[in-house]
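hey team, just a heads up i'm posting the complex here instead of the shared drive bc the drive is being weird again. everything in one block, sequence lines first with there labels, then the predicted structure for the whole assembly after. its two chains so it's a bit long, scroll down
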Amino acid sequence: MFIEIRVHGRGGQGSVTAAEVLAKAAFKDGLVSQAFPAFGSERMGAPVRAFCRVSDKPIRIRSEIHTPDFCIVQDPSLMDTVNVFEGLKPGGIVVLNSEHPEQVKVPAGAVLKPIAGTRIAQEVIGRPIANMVMVGAFAGITGLVTLESLQAAVKERFGGKVGDLNAAAVATAYQAAKEKK
Amino acid sequence: MARQGKQEILEGATAVAHAVARCRPEVVAAYPITPQTHISEELSTIVADGELDAEFVKVESEFGAASVVLGASAAGVRAYTATSSQGLMLMAEVLWNMAGMRLPVVLACANRSVSAPLSIWCDHQDAESIRDCGVIQIYAEDAQEACDQHVIAFKVAEDRRVLLPVMVNLDGFLLTHVFEPVELPDQAITDKFLGKYEAAFKLDIDNPMSFGCFTEPDKCMEGRWMIHDAALRSLGVIEEVSANFLKAFGRNAGGHLEEYKSKDADTILIAKGSICGTIKDVIDQARDKGRKVGLVRIKTFRPFPRAALLAALRGAKQIAVIEKGGSFGAGGVVTPEVKEVLYDAGLHIPVSGFCVQIGGREVPADGIAEIIERVSKGEKQTAYEWFRLKKELLPDLVPND
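-- predicted structure starts here --
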């Protein structure tokens, strides 16, 4: 097993944290994982990428992820400037934060899974920061990590009330995505 | 087995800070610089939280940071700093002094390109440009090794047969900013392993002593020879400490070299740092295709492990050195040293040098595969190739052939 995930977002949306939490959750599930940002001098609002690898063997490779199995796209406006489908493996899934997926041109072989990430974040957390929602939806769609591990990772990462709210958002997104699946 | 021990997912720099804290330095001084910052930031938090009984000295520059740890070490305590790139350049003068005064300071270099052009990304030119100052240099492949090598670094530096600063190199961003499984050095084992710090000599009003004093031409050379001699003797100490580390912690973090599938290899790659992880994956793929290829990873770069390297390379038919640096107007830094080892042994194995990942430009796996393919086919030896240089970016005034 060797799974590669690429997270697309904008500076300030918590894409690196999304990759980090996914890696921690996978690790809690007994797998080996690695997460890292596309290193740069990130600015608020600029397109950013983060990467996560999950395997059942030690991970040695340190290149960026060029042929992901999955992509998580936090901001639909990225689709205008960034080719989030680039290098996606045949049958690869893109989990997109969007309520208007009909506007997205999906290349052959790619599967689009839209989720109303920002809306769920606003409703559950009270803030339009959708990174943990997207990770929850990702888990619901792919089954790569368990909801329990993901919630535990989220609570450890944020702690306190923010941790609880984000863990609740993860559960909401997980269930919503699973039902849709 | 994929997982072992009490691993957790930690960010490389954060993990290093906690590993350093478990070595219980009494003075830490550092100045923030990307990509090192998370190490000193986390250490300042650890000190502020009262988890480490140390003085964290805020300084105005890396020259200040290095000077503070030099002074602290001379005053008789365990001292630590961390830096990158321009910060290391600013420390350079002090590092020569530390080595000359035989002060066992440990520092980390989160390897980063040196200006200009300004780049915050990883290559090895910062560390390699202070190659000759008497500071021992070791290189980590992953976050775990970066942590463990700090424990080894203190033990080697403080050994009475050595008494030299040790610099742990970890690739900027690639290792400082990665989240991956790490088992922090156990506190009780680390305490036992390092022991309570006793300075070999220190500034003491009851026993006055000068450090870094003036020498006339009749004595200076001997002082310098003693640095050289101590650095050479540290080779044995590094082996001994690394073996003891393995026994105490159950992890193989030190030593001079790692030999990966190189024992029966016709083509041997040589590299240091985090790129070796990617190289190992590519070697496995090449092996599947029947290519007899292996890697010799340099973990100790200064002192240069000539004997170990010779033994590891003796059977090779061709060698490729993959470097993240170089010496402008000459060629590689590691490549000529490898050639020297072979030449002195009367071995005429072709050695090709490849300059990669300058300023953080990634060499994906296919780049490594290309180098293996070219070299193992017996392509004519190349002195030092700037691998995949984008000639189309060069201005017209540069003759472009």
